[in-house]
């Protein structure tokens, strides 16, 4: 097995990357991956899509081990596919829901994680969270579902406003302008709320 010390620049094998993630060696991992000579984009892409003997991707492993800093780095900086599935059709979101990792759910969702993706057994992340009694994950996924439904309603309104045939004689110019402004305001509101806001009691 390849021993990797913190701060030691190294060209990572797939096994070495999994080793760093499992150990939570965030600094050693980013030092290695940030080296563009050892790790050009195509090598990074290969590492991100590689699977362990247990069928887990680097992102899956970071989620499973609750390595939030690593989850964030893989998703934001390394192009890890947030909707990649394993042989059973489970994504990193399913794993986060199973392992009570609400923080990872939030990170992945904010980067386009699909909360409606079903495994081969027909389970979405929310059903996995419910099966394991992970209430914080269930709460977040219910919030995400409501947010997505609101975003879909705004998109539908935009499509209606753009369809002059549908709107003919229904709204005058000022009313269309007001409706368009309302959509913009709600889109901006949604942009600022990619995770639930804490309630102040």
UniProtKB/TrEMBL annotation:
Coiled-coil residue spans: none
ANK repeats (start-end): 54-87, 88-120
InterPro entries: Ankyrin_rpt (IPR002110), Ankyrin_rpt-contain_sf (IPR036770), HSP70_C_sf (IPR029048)
SMART domains cross-referenced by the UniProt entry: ANK
Keywords: ANK repeat, Repeat
Keyword Repeat: yes
Name the record gives this protein: Uncharacterized protein
Originating species: Macrostomum lignano
